[in-house]
Amino acid sequence: MVMESTGIYWKSPYAALEGVGIRVKVVNARHVKQVPGRKTDVCDAQWLATLARAGLLRGSFVPSAKLRELRVISRQRQKLVSLLTSEKNRMHKENRMHKENRMHKVLSDAGIRLGVVVSDLHGQSARAMIKAILDGQPPHEVLNLASRRLKASREELYDALQGELTASHGFVLDELLRPIEELEARIARFDARLLSELASEKNALALLQTLPGVNVIGAAMLLVESGSDMSVFGTSDRLAS
Q: Of 161, 179, 197, which residue is a domain's last?
């Protein structure tokens, strides 16, 4: 049996047919050349059947039922990552008058110039220092959280941490960080669920992590999209497409 991959509408009938043991070839509608003037669904179906009988259709890759299920998790995770990026970008959006992002502005108002010596206030090191400031730790203790990879010297960082964070400053900073931390926590839960579901694919995950720049989550996302059997693609070009 053959069907076109029209949006998401092919998924339910495909799963139903797969469930009763019927093999279905899903083809890209753009690869099926229709005869001019024949535009009805019935004619489309007849044309697909004709091409299929002639062996002229190449089926698209359809992952296993388990991987299709995991794609629901991985693709929702992608949406959350996009939301997190948008939220961080919104935080960095420059004020037209002061040319400062909002977190830097609040810190500066408290006399803390961390945003002057650290380029990314959402970086791991800067975030840890800001959280320590919110917890009321003194500058010399906050300084211990600074990464050695920061360009600023220890003296510059220490000077930048001098200031007086009032309760109002702390409240606003906490509210600015809250949506970001909530999104990060949600992404972490998606990561944990995805890796738990892929526990049986440790070898494939380890192999994918040998690719430059691919960590365990990146490997999991790749595995869910492409599966572990590369032979179904035939060539690297088909895999990349």
A: 197
Number of C-beta neighbours around residue 197 at 10 A? 17
Both structure tokens of 27: 């083809």
* One domain for residues 152 and 56: no
**Residue 240 placed within a domain:** no
For residues 151 and 46, state if they share a domain.
no
User: Measured between alpha carbons, how far is residue 159 from residues 30, 103, 116 in Å?
Assistant: 62, 18, 11
- Residues with Cβ < 8 Å from 23, sequence gap 6 or more? 1
Query: Residue 25: what are its φ and ψ, rounded to 5°?
Result: -100, 120
Domain count for the chain:
2
Helix H or strand E encompassing 104: helix 102-109
On whether the CB atoms of residues 94 and 101 are closer than 8 A, the answer is yes
The Cα 214–Cα 211 span in angstroms is: 6
For the entire predicted model, the pTM comes to 0.72
Domain closes at, from 37, 60, 83: 60
Three-class SS of residue 238?
Answer: helix
Q: Which domain holds residue 4?
A: 1-60
Residues 56 and 87 occupy one common structural domain: no
CA count, 13 A, side-chain hemisphere, 94: 4
Q: pLDDT of 169-221, one tens digit each?
A: 999 999 999 999 999 999 999 999 999 999 999 999 999 999 999 999 999 99
Cβ atoms 217, 188 nearer than 8 A: no
